[in-house]
User: What shape does this take?
Amino acid sequence: MANTQNFPSTEDKKTLIKQVAVVTGPGRGIGAAIASKLANLGAVVILGGRTKEHLESTAKAISQSGGKAKVAVCDVTDLHSVESVAREVEHEFGRLDILVNNAGIGGFGGPLHQMPPDAWDRVLNTNLRGVYYCVRSFVPMMIGARSGHIINVSSLAGKNPLPNGAAYAASKWGLNGLSYSIAEELRPHNIRVSVICPGSVNTELSPHEGKDPRKMLQPEDVAHTVKMIVTQSPQSFVSEILIRPTQKP
Assistant: This one.
């Protein structure tokens, strides 16, 4: 398992002061690294996830590093739950500058024809429907402000075949298509949409038998990419980033 307490150094400049960010699935792994990176850059980060103790652990680490974070227990597969968080954010902050759709689950149990329908539903509902719910709930705030950045954490599995992980691949192919499409819908509102497609990251999400974790991508690699995206000059945006390890693990 990756070290989820590998938080950013104090060398990052506070470029996001007064900005508000929502990160889903920030209890550990990639989400925790992204949330911590954004907080280190000066943003107030709302931590949206299902497991309160994991969220509180991330919030505590952010606070100890001098950042600001707020725990918001929610389930991205439940529209009412997501809408409740959106109302809280609007009431308390009156704005949302960054939405990082990171929450996701794997589905690597074997060939698709042997996959139970409820397992298919869990993967697609979390990895794809959950992003739709977050976009639906939070984008109106961004449209009102004529500003915002949405970052969807996808996967190279959304670019390549993934035997024995077809549901996961389908959710990420779908997420990529969703991202490219809403990018065009939201450009007139000055809202930028980016998708990040990492290869295998050293987290608990998927099996990594036979791979050297030291050569794999680390959560901080994805967090660094998010930093590059949100600090980009306002006249442009990065539509898509693919991340691979320097050495094959």
Notes: The longest strand covers residues 191-198. DSSP finds six helices and seven strands in the chain. The radius of gyration is 17 Å.
